[in-house]
Amino acid sequence: MIEPEHDxxxxxxxxxxxxxxxxVYYQPRPVSAEDLWLMRQIDELHLNYPFxxxxxxxxxxxxxxxxxxRRHIRMLMRRMGIEAIYRRxxxxxxxxxxxxxxxxxxxxxxxxxxxxxxxxxxxxxxxxGFVYLAAVVDWFSxxxxxxxxxxxxxxxxxxxxxxxxLSRNEKPEIFNTxxxxxxxxxxxxxxxxxxxxxxSLDGKGRWRDNVFVERIWKSIxxxxxxxxxxxxxxxGQNFHRPLPGVL
Length: 247
Fold this sequence. Notes:
The chain is α/β, with parallel strands linked by helices. The protein has 10 helices and 5 strands.
């Protein structure tokens, strides 16, 4: 985007693109080994205690002998794209300019394949970092139709998974997702409209609206995606054993 050899100076190019000149020189810092370890703990605890917010996760991790500030926990949760699940007023706002579509599946009987597809994104820890996994799932058969991984939360890898699912299967009548900006973006919704597929969005914070995909994520993480040393925990502790103050 910025070309140092261009006739215009870097300052002039930055002004033309309406970006800060300092951002041109910014080099993102890699995630530290300590934060990667901490993100794995947060991910495991979130699977077992999805109602836990940053304060409770701080306390749970504290039981393992590691003192971490709540703000740091909250920052890592945002990076991972997870949040506590609980009943609350709908105070969240959609991405600017993105249309929010209604939830179309309330009271609808799912009786056949390719009637309804769903899609979601989750965080997956790997040996030296983490990736985001997106999957398209058929609600009736629970079959994963297509998937993609990415190191960012941009919409492009979601669109690639959608394209693969559509190329290999009969198109669905309804496509259901949460209200993430990837799924409400013009590029993503335009592809669904092009195929005359009805768009359905979960209510904000209503994880049950997409519960089948949530179950698949838990299965992947607990049975396939996480190495045994993480499932069994660190320092000889079992992640699945209730911790003091939780139950």
